[in-house]
Automatic annotation (TrEMBL):
Protein name: YCII-related domain-containing protein
Organism placement in taxonomy: Bacteria, Bacillati, Actinomycetota, Actinomycetes, Propionibacteriales
Record domain YCII-related: where: 1-115
Family assignment from sequence similarity: Belongs to the YciI family.
Organism: Kribbella orskensis
Database matches in InterPro entries: Dimeric_a/b-barrel, YCII
A family per Pfam: YCII
Amino acid sequence: MKFIMLAYTNAQTWVEGTWDPEEFQKACDFYEQLGKDLAESGEGVYTAGLGDPSLTRTIRETPTGTVAADGPYAEVKEVLASFGIVDVVSADRAYEIAHRIVDAVGDIVEVRPLMDGSADS
């Protein structure tokens, strides 16, 4: 079963760049090790960090036509910082991986099944 894990982090910390350097390095080291562990177990499919939220461009349909807006919404408290796709034996295993992320770095992790057309979707 494939799942996407969406990791959200504090928007203010991201925008202001106020990460504690030691905590930031610990998070980087954790994600590096997690990637190795998932590659070794065969569960890791793909992961990526995302660019600065200020580079976001949202395209949407409105009653007057298609509109594009730059940047994140001001009221957002968390920003999508990274994502990963895992191929695991069960939803519970995906949740275990997400718990590992939350416990290590404190990010909020949303876990959603991928609809890939297989019988497991």
